[in-house]
Design brief:
Maf protein, 30% helix, 7-stranded mixed beta sheet, alpha/beta
Length: 225
Amino acid sequence: MKEGSLRLVLASSNSDKVAEIGALLKAVPGLTLLPRPSSVPDVEETGATLLDNSRLKARALVDGTGEAAVADDTGLEVEALNGAPGVHTARFAGEHATYSDNVAKLLAELTAVGADGPDRRRATFHTVALVAYPDGSEVWADGEVAGVITPEAAGDGGFGYDPVFAPDGGGGRTFAQMSAGEKHDVSHRGRAFRALAAKLVGDSSSHDLALRGLTSRGIDKGGSA
């Protein structure tokens, strides 16, 4: 990889996610992350899967900037809710829902179906992280972590559903009760972006021209299922 050759526009303007992505992609040599331009409109997440939505978001930034872009999408699948909220995780309580709105709805839904014990509150977080290039190619990876939804919020760290998600192997602590480093080590997003970083390093030489928009090979680099 040529020093400084890898420039990625962030598809997210969420400051919490941006901070996590920056920390998780530090392993990629010569990486420059560019903020999402305000001139690019919000993307309607109409995909049926997390991969679809990640691709939609990344492609919108490539089209709007001419630069390679990185995007991700995360879903929380709760067994007692038949896999909901799934692809609607970020908008579970409505299009303009806050973190606390979504958490409140999740806890209310679990109460409504009588999911009062840990065995009834099993859930899995799943993230797909994707980089799209100006030549039409892409590389993606995913990560997941299983755990339980706690009866009430606990902890002051993290964001989103972190105060009510206790990952397996975390000693019963929620993500919000962990340090950032502890969370990154075991989280869905941490696993997805570490896998993506490894693929970016491996693909760097073959994509060097594509990163500058000078080729049109049309290769679709797949990720893990």
